[in-house]
Amino acid sequence: MNRDDPEGAIAQAAKACSNWGRWGEDDRIGTLNFLDDAKRREGAALVRRGASFSLSQRFDMEGPQNGWRRRTNPVHTMLDTGADAALGNQGFPHGLGGADDVIAMPLQCSTQWDGLGHIFDHGRAWNGRDAATTVTSAGDLVTGIEHMAPYVAGRGVLLDVGRVVGEDGELPDGFAVTEEHLAATVAAHGVAVGRGDLVVVRTGQLSRVRRAGWGDYAGGPAPGLSFTTAGWLHCTEIAAIATDTWGFEVRPNEFDHAFQPLHQVVIPHMGLLIGEMWDPDALAADCADDGVYEFWLTAAPLPITGAVGSPVNPIAVK
């Protein structure tokens, strides 16, 4: 890998890992095509104990965002409160009162999915479409995340790379997770990863910032997937992958003068669904305790018409 030539490496990986046309020219869901009915039945059959785990961070004003690219933390406002009810200001009959609220937030400010309209490569969106006519001021007119909403449920697999490779269960910032690290984690967990799986990678960075404060969690240095894992992500035919970091891939990125080069390959060329800022810590502790790293996972995006990302509350059930 030539650190001085990110554009050449991106072009080479994009060509090798392209899924353009694989599911037809009208495809809107990319690698979620790998997650079929049989794979969902396989995932559902993994439920044994009924123990459930939310893999979402909290959505509140204490969240990780620092204003980069106008991304802010959620702002929660009450429209009606118990005080309004007690004072009789709501106008309801026979003593009825209620509370109501509203939230304003960027769709990718906390635990979320990157949709297929989120990243482009030289003006091309997923499946080779023209980015200018695919995603406009009216939203993603073709691959809006609402098209994915029915499909993201199936066999989940946790790869706790932080516990297997790191010290004290965590990888340091800037640690590039390679295919070899992923393979070592798969072997250590005694679990297979393959077609149609929903993969959750724990680096341990979220555990660390919980102790030390958010700092530069949103956009700063982080462990993450190496650019060299593009081939693994492609050949395994997984349906989606999520991490406990802000940006999925290692930061600083492995090339000089580059920004999120792995995104530039896997979203517009591979059509891979990527999750970021997930919270797998409670699930990881349970997996380490019982030695079972596969589970039923449901993680549907909100069907927001034309959105290029969505908040999500992933639920793993074992």
Helix content: 10-25%
Please give the domain count: 2
CATH topology of the largest domain: Glucose Oxidase, domain 1
Structural Rg: 20 Å
Count of alpha and pi helical runs: 10
The pLDDT mean sits at 97
Q: Order of strands across the widest beta sheet?
A: 1-15-13-7-9-11-12-4-14
Uncertain segments are none
Task: State the major sheet.
Answer: 9 strands, mixed
Shape: globular
Number of strands: 15
Shape-level CATH architecture of the largest domain: 3-Layer(bba) Sandwich
Going by CATH, the homologous superfamily of the largest domain would be Putative cyclase
- Overall structural class, as computed from helix and strand content, comes to alpha/beta
- The CATH top-level class label of the largest domain: Alpha Beta
Distance linking N and C termini: 40 Å
Pfam family, one: Cyclase
Keywords: Hydrolase
EC number: 3.5.-.-
Enzyme class: hydrolase
Commentary on this structure:
The structure is a single chain. With 318 residues, the chain is α/β, with parallel strands linked by helices. It has two domains: 275 residues, Glucose Oxidase, domain 1, CATH 3.50.30.50; 29 residues, no CATH class. It is built from ten helices and 15 strands. Strands 1-15-13-7-9-11-12-4-14 form a nine-stranded mixed β-sheet. Strands 2-3 form a two-stranded antiparallel sheet. The chain has a two-stranded antiparallel ribbon with strand order 5-6. Helix 1 packs parallel to helix 9. It is globular and about 70 Å long. The model has no long low-confidence stretch (mean pLDDT 97). Keywords: Hydrolase. Its EC number is 3.5.-.-. This is Cyclase family protein. GO terms for molecular function: arylformamidase activity. InterPro entries: KFase/CYL, KFase_sf.
